[in-house]
Amino acid sequence: MDPTTTPLPPHLRPVLEARSVWISDVHLGTRDARADALLEMLASLKAGTVYLVGDIIDGWQLRKRWYWPPSHDRVVQRLLHLARHGTRVILIPGNHDEFLRPYAGLMFGSVELRRDIVHTTAGGAQLWITHGDAFDAVLLHAPRLARLGDTLYMASLRLNRVLNRLRALTGRPYWSLSQYLKGRVKSAVNHISRFETLLASEARRHGCTGVVCGHIHRAELRLFRDGQGTLYANCGDWVESQTFLTEDEDGCLHLYVWTEVGAQELRRLEVRPGRVPSRTARPEAVAAREVLDTV
Ligand SMILES: [Mn+2]
Predict the structure, then answer these.
(1) Is residue 1 included in any domain, yes or no?
(2) DSSP readout, the chain?
(3) What distance in angstroms lies between residue 237's CA and the mean position of ligand 1's atoms?
(4) Tell me, what's the pLDDT at 1?
(5) How many domains does the structure of the chain reveal?
(6) Per-residue confidence (pLDDT) for residue 177, from 0 to 100
(7) How far is the CA of 94 from the centre of ligand 1 (A)?
(8) What confidence score (pLDDT) does residue 179 get?
(9) CATH code of residue 191
(10) In a domain, 208, yes or no
(11) 13 CA to centre of ligand 1 in angstroms
């Protein structure tokens, strides 16, 4: 057996220490939520602040059909446990858990519910934390279309499960149908880049150096070439990619994928506090409007 891919027993795994962690799009309440993998990650985690960046619980799917296995319950229990034992846990509802939005500003046990929030890194950079669905052009103009897209997406995930069971039987490695579809469909690619541009512009409008969001199930950590180096970070999802973001004690951001051997770093980025545009000029707000007008 290849020693690099042999899973280590949990007690031998390195502890994942972070000043802050961002997780989103877990979709608990659906068969596609990778609850066991997330539990492993949370078990090895030591963090000052955990941001749950939306779509943690999938209310849309639960309304259609109740699905709540013990592993999904354990994820919730683990998060509540962290919140009770010194970790600041902040929950920012997404569109799939919008039923929580009316409670923004309140405490749920030891968990803070917020519509959005500004995070200050160890280096003093301000990051705007939001789920991001408010800036999804499809959602903005046609909520019913968005739900149809959601149904199709969930169907492709189900098909993907069947496909991969067959692939496993024939000894082939895992392959993601929906990632493939998303990568191939040009309009989806355009949509993603518009989403990223808009979110980065909105971050500037909030007086921040960058944004951390979720929603589109596409992990990312990069700086925009917009003359200001606006940070765009997306913590990905736990239905396909098992990705998340962390900030270390030096204020450096890291993008990880959780694998059977633990956290594997995909990218890292140093964030410096950026120039904040003056209130009168605000070229970003104009740019954001232009983007909206073209969709
Ligand atoms: Mn979402």
Answers:
(1) no
(2) --TTTSPPPGGGSPPEEEEEEEE----BTSTT--HHHHHHHHHTEEEEEEEE-S-SB-HHHHHHS----HHHHHHHHHHHHHHHTT-EEEE---STTGGGGGGTTSEETTEEE-S-EEEEPTTS-EEEE---GGG-HHHHH-HHHHHHHHHHHHHHHHHHHHHHHHHHHTTPPP--HHHHHHHH-HHHHHHHHHHHHHHHHHHHHTT-SEEEE-SSS--EEEE--SSS--EEEE---TTTT-EEEEE-TTSEEEEEEEETTEEEEEEEEE--PPPPPPTTT-HHHHHHHHHHHH-
(3) 10
(4) 46
(5) 1
(6) 66
(7) 5
(8) 67
(9) 3.60.21.10
(10) yes
(11) 31
